[in-house]
Automatic annotation (TrEMBL), chain A:
<dbReference type="GO" id="GO:0046872">
    <property type="term" value="F:metal ion binding"/>
</dbReference>
<feature type="domain" description="4Fe-4S ferredoxin-type">
    <location>
        <begin position="353"/>
        <end position="382"/>
    </location>
</feature>
<keyword id="KW-0479">Metal-binding</keyword>
<dbReference type="Pfam" id="PF13183">
    <property type="entry name" value="Fer4_8"/>
</dbReference>
<keyword id="KW-0677">Repeat</keyword>
<keyword id="KW-0249">Electron transport</keyword>
<dbReference type="InterPro" id="IPR003741">
    <property type="entry name" value="LUD_dom"/>
</dbReference>
<dbReference type="GO" id="GO:0006089">
    <property type="term" value="P:lactate metabolic process"/>
</dbReference>
<dbReference type="Pfam" id="PF02589">
    <property type="entry name" value="LUD_dom"/>
</dbReference>
From TrEMBL, chain B:
<dbReference type="InterPro" id="IPR024185">
    <property type="entry name" value="FTHF_cligase-like_sf"/>
</dbReference>
<dbReference type="InterPro" id="IPR003741">
    <property type="entry name" value="LUD_dom"/>
</dbReference>
<feature type="domain" description="LUD">
    <location>
        <begin position="45"/>
        <end position="219"/>
    </location>
</feature>
<dbReference type="InterPro" id="IPR037171">
    <property type="entry name" value="NagB/RpiA_transferase-like"/>
</dbReference>
<protein>
    <submittedName>
        <fullName>Lactate utilization protein</fullName>
    </submittedName>
</protein>
<dbReference type="Pfam" id="PF02589">
    <property type="entry name" value="LUD_dom"/>
</dbReference>
């Protein structure tokens, strides 16, 4: 592991040792899973709309360069200024340029995963610009000085008591009250003053429509509307895969996203922006900018198998259903996107040298694939990344970076054992007779037993049992 | 950054052409199949929206301004922002001047001139709608030069006038029948309740940034 690379194993160990954190996640994820299931009780409807949404995303990818050009053309016609950024540095520079030109001192932001990817807040703060996250969850995380632990519910790792404590420390005149309604109202008061005073509002984009030059944004709180309506300038950031071909392609995506994410039939607001304030209109920003970011996406697009990663609509359902994510929580990944989608997206963006451990944090149980509303073959892509991590010459950045002589030896030993009936028999017999005698403190076994019950080996091997039932051995 | 533009597009085009992806057909039938008998649409909208704390009041074409005035008086609302140039705005002011009514504030200036008042003192905002959607319980808001966006966003109470002749089964159907793709305005919105959040330990709290209350004034024929 190189010096700067996040250490997933160490971070997971710390998370597993924190019962408070595990409890917070367990409760939240159980609730989200059952709410989602209730939304898709009609299996026929789920199958049909899911196939439709997957086709919408695939069709967009099949025409990606043309649709991005068309989006630029329609947005420009509508008065939106379109910018292109190959890297996060370029995207940050574009943002800073606009901010300097309008002499911005205060920025309010709606939730945007792309800006997390860009570390935009740190860049702006370094430049002396105050930047305030306005989604309540993001605001909490920002006050706490940490990063979001879930793409839909950024502060899911904290409970009410912890948030009350944080607000008391950080917000002037805050009372010490562990009450969600009071805390929400407190944040409302602080943020309303900021919306009113902000020079620039920033947002992400859930879908950008090439046909009409429309930016769609969905949210529950109204902060997204505030950021895109009240300040005189609005800057929207999107990954280049967010484009859809037609306006009619939006309803299938909107139908699945909130239902998959939080189990709501729809979010409180579906906001569709097609330009800055026109002559005669009394509100809305006077300038709207769209920053289209690549940051490795065009390389993902280049590989026909990995391309499916770009279908993602960022609903977060795969996280909610992932047995690994629900145990270790989002922070263990130390990445802008945690959970199953993070495990395939982040290594492709940041390279396998830094992120080669992420695809291993998976039991291959397929739960994420079963619930993904756009049918991304996450587990297959995960397998591909595991191979590329140890084998140079593949499509992903830093392929082969995780090649290990010991691992290669272990696997060739494993293959040899399975290829020789005698070796196999000796090994399985040894496990069934001696396995239970092994103390849980043994290296390797300890990793498992620290946070789980020790597995019990059956007294007889499967082959034994089968033979006893009269199944001929081979 | 036009360099970025051409290098991104060139790469996407070259790699896509090397490994073409045939565009799949999109079958919209599963959404088109979502239908409710006309008489069930409004009750469904109401049920779904009430489940997320939306309030409903019923009126007729003849009496809705009076019904609204009485509601505001009952709730102790002291100021109402409205759009004076719209048909509904003109109807609203007729007969308003009796002393007991809340103060009517016309949205007749750019936002910049109204901001402090809008954020600090105005209690309610009144808008029309372009209909509602039965599948999800959503109002369609179509802000215009006469009826600005912040009317439905900043005041603590948003009152939305809904005529029952524009109820749709789905978002897709509304979009198609109203011909949205031909002429999108600066902003279109679906609104399905008052502002809410569950960011603090999954506990639902209403009125986080937008309106704390959403009141639908249903105008029956
Ligand atoms: S991979 Fe699928 S389930 Fe996960 S966030 Fe993306 S769309 Fe949702």
């Amino acid at each position: 592991m190189d010096g700067n690379a996040p250490d997933f194993a160490a971070a997971s160990r710390a998370a597993l040792a924190d019962p408070q954190l595990r409890g917070n996640f367990r409760r939240a994820m159980d609730g989200l899973m059952s709410k989602r299931a209730a939304q898709f009780a009609d299996a026929g409807e789920w199958t049909g709309v899911r196939a439709l949404a997957a086709s919408v995303r695939l069709r967009a990818l099949s025409k990606l360069p043309e649709l991005l050009e068309k989006l630029e053309e329609t947005c420009t016609r509508n008065g939106i200024t379109v910018h292109w950024a190959a890297t996060t540095d370029e995207a940050n520079a574009i943002a800073l340029d606009i901010l300097h030109r309008v002499d911005a001192k205060l920025v309010v932001k709606g939730k945007s995963m792309v800006t997390e990817e860009m570390h935009l807040n740190a860049v702006l703060e370094k430049d002396g610009i105050e930047v305030l996250e306005s989604d309540l969850g993001e605001y909490i995380v920002q006050l706490d000085g940490t990063m979001p632990s879930h793409i839909i519910m950024p502060a899911i790792h904290l409970n009410t008591k912890q948030i009350a404590h944080l607000f008391k420390r950080k917000i002037k005149d805050a009372e010490s009250r562990e009450d969600a309604a009071y805390l929400t109202d407190l944040a409302r008061r602080v943020l309303r003053a900021k919306f009113q005073a902000a020079d620039v509002g920033m947002s992400g984009v859930n879908a950008a429509v090439a046909e009409t030059g429309t930016l769609c944004l969905i949210e529950n709180e109204g902060n997204g509307r505030m950021c895109t309506t009240v300040p005189p300038v609005h800057i929207a950031f999107m990954g280049l895969e967010k484009v859809v071909e037609k306006l009619e392609d939006v309803p299938p995506v909107i139908s699945l996203l909130p239902r998959s994410a939080t189990g709501q039939p729809i979010t409180t607001y579906v906001n569709m922006i097609s330009g800055p304030r026109k002559d005669g209109e009394k509100d809305g920003p006077r300038e709207v900018h769209l920053v289209i970011l690549d940051n490795g996406r065009s390389s993902i697009y280049a590989d026909p198998e990995l391309r499916d990663t770009l279908r993602c609509i960022r609903c977060g359902a795969c996280m909610n259903h992932c047995p690994v994510y629900t145990k270790v929580g989002g922070h263990a990944y130390e990445a802008p996107y945690p959970g199953p989608i993070g495990k395939i997206l982040v290594p492709q963006i940041e390279g396998l040298a830094k992120r080669g451990a992420m695809p291993h944090a998976c039991t291959m149980c397929n739960a994420c694939v079963e619930i993904c509303p756009v049918k991304i073959p996450i587990v297959e892509i995960m397998g591909r990344l595991r191979v590329e991590a140890v084998k140079p010459g593949g499509a992903v950045k830093d392929g082969g970076a995780k090649a290990s002589r010991t691992e290669a030896m272990v696997w060739s030993g494993w293959a040899a054992m399975n290829a020789s009936p005698t070796a196999y028999r000796v090994a399985t017999l040894a496990m069934s007779k001696l396995g239970n005698a092994a103390p849980s403190s043994l290296p390797l076994l300890k990793e498992w037993t620290n946070v789980r019950t020790k597995p019990r080996f059956a007294g007889r091997t499967l082959h034994d049992l089968a033979r006893a039932k009269g199944v001929p051995d081979v | 950054m036009s360099d970025a533009r051409s290098s991104i597009l060139t790469k996407l085009r070259a790699t896509r052409d090397a490994h073409p992806l045939p565009p799949p057909a999109s079958d919209f039938a599963p959404i088109e199949a979502k239908r409710w008998p006309p008489e069930e649409r409004l009750p469904r909208i109401r049920r779904l929206m009430e489940a997320v704390h939306t309030e409903f009041i019923d009126a007729t074409e003849a009496d809705w301004p009076v019904v609204l005035r009485e509601f505001l008086a009952r709730e102790g609302v002291e100021s109402l922002l409205y759009a004076p140039a719209t048909e509904a705005g003109k109807r609203l002011v007729e007969g308003w001047e009796s002393a007991a009514n809340p103060t009517l504030i016309p949205y007749d200036r750019p936002l910049e001139d109204l901001k402090p008042q809008l954020f600090e003192s105005i209690e309610a905002g009144f808008t029309t709608t372009r209909g509602a959607i039965a599948e999800t319980g959503s109002l369609i808001l179509w802000p215009t030069a006469e009826e600005p966006r912040t009317l439905s966003l900043v005041p603590h109470i948003h009152i939305a006038l809904l005529r029952t002749d524009a109820l749709y089964d789905t978002f897709l159907q509304a979009m198609r029948e109203q011909g949205w793709a031909q002429a999108m305005p600066t902003n279109v919105l679906l609104v399905s309740g008052p502002s809410k959040t569950a960011d603090i330990e999954q506990t639902l709290a209403y009125g986080v940034h937008g309106p704390k209350r959403l009141v639908v004034l249903v105008v029956h024929p």
